[in-house]
Design a protein that fits this description.
heteropentamer; A alpha/beta; B alpha/beta; C mainly alpha; D mainly alpha; A: alpha/beta; Rossmann fold; six-stranded mixed β-sheet; four-stranded antiparallel β-sheet; globular; D: mainly alpha; MetI-like fold; 2 domains; three-stranded antiparallel β-sheet; 20 helices; 5% strand; binds adenosine-5'-triphosphate; binds magnesium ion; binds phosphate ion; Phosphate_PstA (chain D); transmembrane helix (chain D); Phosphate transport system permease protein PstA (chain D); cell membrane (chain D); transmembrane (chain D)
């Protein structure tokens, strides 16, 4: 509890540049998929109540690192994770750790929208239901509505809450998935290119939402859009070929990176 | 088609296959194919018509029925020989380690009928133990495994044991007096004391094995193969055996038949030879393998041999 | 030339058509530099199909119609006088065919020359004896008129066969040639072969329909026969099943239907939960090693002959349940019971549920699981709340299949549940099912034309209609609750 | 309210150490563990049931793979076999097996006296009774094959009688022999004595796999040869017909057929066919294939066709479920590059559906392989001793089948057949496993998640 | 053939602004999904050998319209298309039309990457194989390599051509799908947000590729990125709630749109 207050104090004092207390810490994280090594000793601190962006070329291991943070990689048989990752100072790969509780605290939104084959309402109510966050019908209605609203989807679907979530367009589906993640109010939200299927208006809404969520939550977002990274994140980490190239305040990364590769990647950017 | 085709009774099947096997190894003809599938189905097949893809012989554990003969006539199967091959004894046996039973048909009727005469009254069957029926029967619970209604054996059981018993112990008269039909004699109790077996004798044996106080109804040949497991009961004081049945002392038996399609005799290679071989003394005689296996040899075998040689078709049913 | 050889020749032509069609397409493509509409193989297939299909269709039609036409013609030659009393013209025709067939064989085996045959007369030769030499069975001696009819039958059949061969081969060649001429880059060869494949697919799905028709047809006739002998009201509404040899049987279906239902429900109550849990465990929890061992191993359960289960029920489970359940609870002393048969059958049904469900569960995309885990769901929550609903239609299919098998099973019920038709609630008492009685009445010792045997057909048809109703219900349920992923 | 839910979540999980578990989480984990345990228990139950059944089959049946033989020097006495001394094959053919029985009796008696065995109470017919009733037939075959051997003394390895064989397999004991009508304790003692002399041996029983069925009096000679061939022929027919037809029908129904009343009818209809008792397929087969189409009785072709019709619904149902499970995106991808619907199905959808199809095939074939009831009506539940010819002609010859052999043997009186029935079940299962191994191997190759 | 040359001439003369001869034309296109109408009488000309971008908020019917252009909507049972769509003056909804041939000429890349569960090589070789575009192994090797190269994927996968395409990362998968579409050399390529899963470098490659392809092919691309639309397209069409709001040269659309809604949408944009 001490750490929490400390972090909060620190952040209000120095909103940018100086790293806030770290919510999650990766130490020498290595990942193998079978024979193939996907991450090579990554050391990264995720600051609390800030947005951290992970950038880098396709296939460099951003998603892999992200999935390590809530142990989603556990579901891939051939995936082996080395090193350690701490959440509030506790190693989440400790055998005594409860993955379920971990994932309730570290939520995730995926790259490909994956709504459940259920109604829109049930998609959102699913998390609160399994975590026991709501009991009565009215509570569920409430949490479903707020979550959908936060994800900027409510108006579009309010008349068809009980139709299947899979009948939505791609963008709508992804926003539904975000709503679903928000509904369990996690501490950390991991987002793997959450906006890659969204139009600018929806993207703006989500970005606004991310900014809003930052008040209470720690957010790690993988993105291909430098603009997005610049807009929403306080810190940025650059990956390349499974290595963490460089990490720092977003502003600095985009204006004055230390590493040649970051420089190249960023200036090689378009629009 | 170059082999004889036979279908019908599962009771006759063991005998027919013994003969078929011997026929195959003693002649140049191929071994006949013997199907089982029930007497009724066999006779139906026989009467399906004349021709290569119909069977030549139907085994039957009961006599052919008029409806079968009509069907045959309708399908152009005119001349059929009836060949009686011997008698099948039906025995009552219990577990080898159990007590001895000396039955009479009347005991069986008292044990299994739905309504019995007790102290001069027609009552729903009250007996639970054999010694309640007759004091010199063992002190054992009544439990009988009798053939299901699909079996020809059941018909014999009904006729020669239950109905005879019904008359013996006076129930028949009482029923008649009460204005009921004779058919009521055959109504068996349904409280789980009499258990129908739709399977075969191996199933009955397994049930007797699992219920040591149970009494099963078996064919004589089956019993003879399992004398180490079964103790046979006497009926009217007679121990069932090939000899007592042939002598007509043991009451519960029935004749077994097969029916030959005469139209096939000259055209299916080996058919006439098989028929003659079957009824020859070496096979069906009292010292032949069939008798050794438990078929009660027909005292009128010579007559049958004569008929077979002359291909005498059967006359009308009497 | 027999139809078989003719068919082989057509097939050879077909193969040639394929090669030529393909080659021509390739040549055209090279010469014109044109882009072919389809792959060269498709052109080959198209030519092959044109060669084969019309020819074979013609042949089939010919083979079907020829006997009808010839029969008609010959049949009019036969005077009424040779038709025996009470017999039918069709029976005599059968004899004619048999004789003609026998004469063919006589000639084939070289026993009689064609010339000798034409001079052969029924009143001078022992036709029956001669035909017996080649194994053709005749019911009686041959009347001269019948023999003449047989001879003209032969000659007409010969001419017809010759015409047939010419016609079929000409069709094959003509269509093949035309098709080959039509091979051009723009020809929609693929569509042709795909249309053909499609009609094959349609044909295959018709097999199921035809089977149903066949079943209904082969049951219906005898069922009608049965209802002429036995009142339908008693059959459908009587609660007593008690067949007798001497007639006067009670043949009420209700106790049998009840037994069928009861045994199946008990079996499914065992098989469905266990089967589903196995499927879930193997698909979601177990390692590859266990799964690759356990799945086929459990499938063996479906392959063990039911007689083994029957013996198991009879010898082990039945007495066990009697001694440990029925007698202590005072529920009876029967070693065969609904529970015995149901439990043992349930074991047999496990793989029907587990294997099919496992495949369906396995097919649910990983993204569904990820989505759920990402929200902090435990594995079991994911399975119960996300995967099962997604896999539901397939699972219902698997359960239906298991239920179907339960209804159709004979051996286990005979040995496990006994043969007593009874309407009762006590699961520890003997009962029996429709299927068991179909088998026993059909293979019994009763005469065929009696209601006691014919009832088997009525039972079969009733069960058929009954399960049809259940299936319609199931389809409706699946439609209502299906959830589609992606 | 938002804050409320948020804070309740906070209270639930946030800020607490990951090592502590909330009450609800504990319950959820307990549920998880229970669920998993139930799953494991189900698997264990399934496997135990299998092993239990297999175990009982094996313990009852392996003994049928061994058989007891007696080595006998038999003098082929010309005085008995060929009084005329012409060695005329025609004349020899007329001699029945009954003529050969005395030769065996003589040989056994001589063996006993040579070895100096004396057993009290050994009856007159007891000694020759330890030899199978199959033996005279064997002698007759031998002599007919080579009449010149008449007059010589030839060593034969003859089958011992079923009860003697049973004695060495524990089925028959001295105790039961006393009660048994078909064997005496003295015969068993004689067998023991012969065994001690090395004249009687128990060894592997090849003829169990190659010999045809034998009648009720000679269980020791009964084999599975005809049944194995018959089953193999039928399975070949079933596989070649039901798999393509079933898959084709499923493809049409799942991919092409318009969704309408008619396809609903077909769908229900197929599901319903799966519920039709197998004996009804026998009725159908009898009516259509034998009575209408005129195919022969007892022939594998008819059996194969009937079992095909019976297997089809299973395969269709499984295949349709598998096709349904292939994600639409795969079809779209293929269509998007210009594949025709037919190509997209045959190139992409079918391979992905293969595991499910193979499962259906495995279950369907397993069922077909073990089925007896429909064969009852088309004449395959029969005593057949002649081997069917090689295919395709052999498809039309009478044959038996493995489940039929099991069914027949379990009905016979002599308990030796029970052991043989279990042996036949083992062979059937091996047959099944061999048949399925291919399918299982293929299934594993095709199985993947996407 | 005349049209083709005409179009080519026209294009060289007036590369932008003036619409080229139209390759595809939608007339009064309406689409219903069951009860729900998704397109309301869209009239749109797709100019030959140019890139047309479809923009608009999520769920407005862009994908739906795109799928009409090669009749991919045929695969959705409940989807009914009204009006007519012409390809080179021929109505592609004419019953005599061969859909397969149509789709070979009008290729498609989807929003969610959907590689076949086969090897990378087989994924790319599949199209040429079914269309008979290659015969020998060497020809296949050739076409696979060039297609992968054009899609900017070759270097990353050249050592694992025979490993499954589904094992690639999201971005790699999408590029594989593009390579697969290119391999059959269609006349028109439809792309549904092809870059939504790509990083900037890969995106740049694809955009370059699109520009290159424009020389020979007609391209219709759905995108959420205004920048991308501006960068790659010559003409842009703006959809809203199932209606075509406005269509015109990209430059004009982005600087001086006629319609208020376009204005709003474009200025509401970020980055
Ligand atoms: N399940 C898997 N099995 C094997 N290899 C994998 C798996 N998932 C990812 N990889 C490999 O690991 C490397 C890193 O993949 P990752 O998905 O983390 O990349 P990424 O940075 O997220 O790329 P993108 O931006 O395209 O999503 C890639 O080379 C990829 O091919
Ligand atoms: N298969 C379908 N069944 C029913 N409705 C559908 C289906 N596909 C799309 N729709 C509906 O049609 C409308 C248009 O969808 P479409 O996918 O064309 O939108 P889009 O502009 O491509 O959106 P996005 O940018 O999110 O992909 C949406 O309201 C959507 O919900
Ligand atoms: Mg990624
Ligand atoms: Mg879209
Ligand atoms: O089979 P059976 O007719 O003798 O009962």
């Amino acid at each position: 509890m001490n750490m929490l207050t400390d972090a909060a104090v620190e952040e209000t004092l120095q909103p940018l540049y100086k790293p806030a207390a770290s919510k999650m810490t990766g130490k020498d994280v290595t990942v193998h998929y079978g024979e193939k090594q996907a991450l090579f000793g990554v050391n990264l601190e995720v600051p609390e109540k800030q947005v951290m962006a992970l950038i880098g070329p396709s296939g460099c291991g951003k998603s892999t690192f992200l999935r390590c943070l809530n142990r989603m990689n556990d579901t891939i048989d051939i995936c082996r994770v080395g090193g350690s990752i701490l959440l509030d100072g506790e190693d989440i790969y400790d055998p005594r750790i409860d993955v379920v509780e971990l994932r309730a605290r570290v939520g995730m939104v995926f790259q490909k929208p994956n709504p459940f084959p259920k109604s829109i309402y049930e998609n959102v109510a699913y998390g609160p239901r399994i975590h026991g966050l709501a009991w009565k019908k009215s509570e569920f209605d409430e949490v479903v509505e707020t979550s959908l609203q936060k994800a900027g989807l409510f108006n579009e679907v309010k008349d068809r809450l009980h139709e299947p979530g899979t009948g939505l367009s791609g963008g709508q589906q992804q926003r539904l998935c975000i709503a679903r993640a928000i509904a369990v109010s996690p501490e950390v939200i991991l987002m793997d290119e959450p906006c890659s299927a969204l139009d600018p208006i929806a993207t703006a809404k989500v970005e606004e939402l991310i900014d809003e969520l930052r008040q209470n939550y720690t957010i790690v977002i993988v993105t291909h859009s430098m603009q997005q990274a610049a807009r929403v994140s306080q810190r940025t980490a650059m990956f390349h070929l499974g290595n963490l190239v460089e990490e720092g305040p977003t502003e600095k990364m985009f204006t004055n990176p230390d590493d040649k590769r970051t420089q190249d990647y960023i200036t090689g950017r378009f629009g | 088609r170059d082999q004889v085709q036979i279908a019908g009774s599962s009771t006759v099947l063991p005998y027919a296959s013994i003969v078929a096997e011997a026929f195959g190894e003693n002649t140049d003809y191929p071994t006949p194919v013997v199907e089982s599938g029930g007497s009724g189905a066999g006779r139906k097949k026989l009467c399906e018509g004349v021709g290569e893809n119909t069977i030549d012989i139907a085994n039957s554990s009961s006599r052919i029925k008029q409806s079968d003969i009509d069907l045959c006539a309708q399908n152009g199967v005119k001349d059929i020989q009836e060949v009686r091959i011997g008698y099948d004894g039906i025995v009552f046996a219990s577990d080898i380690n159990g007590p001895e039973y000396a039955f009479t048909p009347a005991d069986w009727h008292n044990a299994l009928a739905a309504k019995v005469l007790k102290d001069g009254q027609l009552v729903d069957n009250p007996y639970k133990k054999w010694n309640e029926i007759r004091a010199d029967l063992p002190d054992q619970e009544i439990l009988a495994f009798i053939p299901g209604t699909k079996h020809g054996t059941r018909e014999v059981f009904d006729e020669k044991v239950i109905i005879d018993g019904c008359e013996e112990n006076g129930t028949a008269e009482a029923l008649k007096a009460a204005g009921l039909e004779e058919k009521e004699c055959m109504a068996l109790r349904t409280d789980g004391v009499s258990i129908d077996i739709d399977g075969d004798y191996t199933e009955t044996l397994a049930r007797v094995d699992a219920n040591k106080n149970g009494i099963g109804v078996f064919g004589l040949s089956f019993y003879q193969n399992n004398t180490d497991k079964l103790r046979v009961g006497t009926m009217g004081g007679v121990v069932p055996s090939v000899e007592t049945i042939a002598a007509g002392e043991y009451p519960v038996s029935r004749p077994l038949y097969f029916y030959v399609k005469n139209a096939h005799l000259d055209v299916i290679p080996g058919l006439q030879e098989y028929v003659e071989f079957f009824v020859s003394d070496e096979i069906a005689g009292p010292d032949g393998p069939l008798a050794a296996y438990g078929l009660v040899s027909d005292p009128e075998l010579a007559k049958t041999q004569e008929k077979v040689k002359n291909r005498v078709p059967m006359g009308a049913l009497n | 030339m027999t139809p078989g050889i003719l068919a082989i020749i057509v097939l050879v032509l077909t193969a040639a058509g394929y090669v030529l069609g393909r080659r021509r397409a390739l040549a055209l493509a090279k010469r014109d530099g044109a882009r072919l509409h389809s792959l060269p193989g498709h052109y080959g297939q198209a030519v092959a199909l044109f060669t084969m299909v019309p020819a074979l269709l013609l042949m089939a039609a010919w083979l079907f119609l020829q006997p009808l036409l010839i029969d008609n013609q010959i049949s009019s030659q036969i005077p009424d006088s040779v038709i025996p009393e009470g017999g039918a013209r069709s029976l005599v025709m059968a004899d004619v065919r048999r004789i003609a067939d026998g004469l063919d064989r006589l000639v084939e085996t070289g026993r009689v020359s064609e010339d000798a045959l034409s001079s052969m007369q029924a009143d001078t030769t022992d036709i029956r004896g001669r035909l017996a030499e080649v194994g053709v069975a005749l019911g009686s001696d041959v009347a001269p008129a019948v023999f003449d009819a047989a001879k003209s039958y032969r000659s007409i059949a010969d001419t017809s066969a010759l015409l047939r061969n010419i016609a079929v081969l000409a069709t094959a060649l003509a269509f093949g040639f035309l098709a080959l001429q039509r091979v051009k880059p723009a020809m929609r060869a693929r569509n042709i072969s795909e249309t053909f494949i499609r009609s094959l697919l349609i044909g295959s799905s018709l097999v199921a329909i035809l089977t149903t028709f066949g079943i209904v047809a082969s049951l219906l006739f005898e069922t009608i026969h049965f209802f002429r002998l036995y009142p339908a009201r008693d059959f459908f509404f009587s609660t007593v099943w008690n067949p007798q040899f001497r007639g006067g049987s009670d043949l009420g279906i209700l106790p049998l239907l009840w037994g069928t239902f009861y045994v199946s429900v008990v079996a499914l109550l065992l098989a469905v939960p266990i089967g589903l849990m196995i499927a879930i465990y193997l698909a979601e929890y177990s390692g590859r090693a266990l799964r690759s061992f356990a799945k086929p191993a459990i499938e063996i359960l479906a392959g063990i002959p039911t007689i083994v289960y029957g013996l198991f029920a009879l010898i082990t489970v039945g007495p066990f349940l009697r001694d440990w359940l029925a007698q202590p609870l005072g529920l009876g002393t029967s070693s065969s019971s609904v529970l015995t048969a149901g439990l043992v059958m349930g074991i047999m049904l496990i793989p029907f549920v587990s294997s099919l469900s496992d495949d369906v569960i396995n097919a649910v995309p990983q993204a569904m699981r990820d989505g759920s885990y990402g929200l902090g769901a435990t594995q079991s929550e994911t399975i119960r709340k996300v995967i099962m609903p997604a896999a539901l239609p397939g699972i219902v299919g698997a359960i239906l299949l298991a239920a179907s098998r339960a209804i159709g099973e004979t051996m286990i019920v005979v040995m496990g549940a006994g043969a007593a038709a009874r309407l009762g609630l006590n699961p520890l008492e003997a009962m029996t099912t429709v299927t068991v009685k179909i088998v026993s009445q059909l293979t019994g010792d009763t005469e065929f034309a009696s209601p006691e045997t014919l009832v088997a057909f009525a039972l079969g048809l009733t069960l058929f209609v009954f399960t049809l109703g259940l299936n319609i219900l199931a389809l409706y349920i699946v439609r209502k609750y299906r959830e589609q992923y992606e | 309210m938002t804050d409320l839910t948020a804070s309740s979540a906070l209270a639930g999980a946030q800020g607490r150490s990951l090592f502590e578990r909330g009450e609800r989480t504990r319950r959820r984990h307990a549920a998880e563990k229970r669920f998993r345990m139930i799953g494991l228990a189900a698997v264990v139950f399934g496997i135990l049931a299998l092993f239990g059944l297999l175990g009982s089959i094996l313990t009852n049946g392996v003994s049928s793979f061994r058989q007891t033989y007696v080595a006998l020097d038999i003098h082929l006495d010309p005085a008995k076999l060929d009084k005329a001394g012409t060695r005329d094959p025609e004349a020899l053919r007329k001699l029945t097996t009954f003529t050969y029985q005395p030769l065996i009796k003589a040989a056994v008696d001589r063996l006993i006296s040579e070895k100096g065995i004396s057993i009290e109470g050994l009856g007159g017919k007891d000694a020759e009774g330890i030899i199978s009733k199959e033996a005279p037939a064997e002698l007759r075959r031998f002599v007919l094959a080579d009449p010149s051997k008449i007059g010589e003394t030839v060593r034969f390895e003859l089958l011992a009688d079923g009860r003697i064989d049973g004695y060495y397999k524990g089925r028959v004991t001295m105790e039961t022999a006393k009660l048994d009508r078909n064997v005496t304790p003295e015969q068993l003692m004689l067998a023991d004595a012969l065994k001690a002399e090395g004249a009687l041996t128990t060894r592997f029983n090849w003829s169990f796999f190659t010999a045809p069925d034998a009648s009720d009096t000679r269980p020791e000679a009964a084999g599975l040869g005809v049944a194995i061939l018959g089953s193999a022929y039928m399975m070949l027919i079933v596989l070649c017909l039901s798999l393509p037809i079933g898959v084709a029908a499923s493809i049409y129904l799942e991919e092409f057929a318009p969704r309408n009343r008619l396809t609903d009818i077909i769908e229900v209809n197929i599901a319903n066919l799966a519920a039709v008792p197998s004996i009804v397929f026998g009725i159908l087969g009898l009516a259509v294939f034998i009575n209408y189409a005129g195919l022969p009785q007892s022939a594998p072709i008819v059996g194969g066709l009937v079992l095909t019709l019976m297997t089809l619904p299973t395969i269709i149902i499984a295949t349709r479920a598998a096709l349904k499970a292939v994600p639409p995106s795969i079809r779209e991808a293929a269509l998007g590059v210009g594949a025709s619907k037919m190509q997209s199905i045959f190139h992409h959808v079918l391979p992905l559906a293969a595991p499910g199809i193979l499962t259906g095939t495995i279950i369907g074939l397993a069922q077909a392989l073990g089925e007896t009831a429909p064969l009852l009506l088309i004449g395959m539940v029969a005593f057949v001793r002649e081997f069917p010819a090689a295919p395709p002609g052999g498809f039309f010859d009478p044959a038996s089948a493995l489940p039929v052999q099991v069914y027949n043997w379990t009905q016979r009186g002599d308990p030796a057949f029970i052991e043989r029935a279990s042996g036949a079940i083992i062979v059937l299962l091996v047959f099944l496993i061999i048949m399925n191994l291919g399918a299982i191997f293929l299934r594993r190759r095709f199985e993947r998640r996407w």
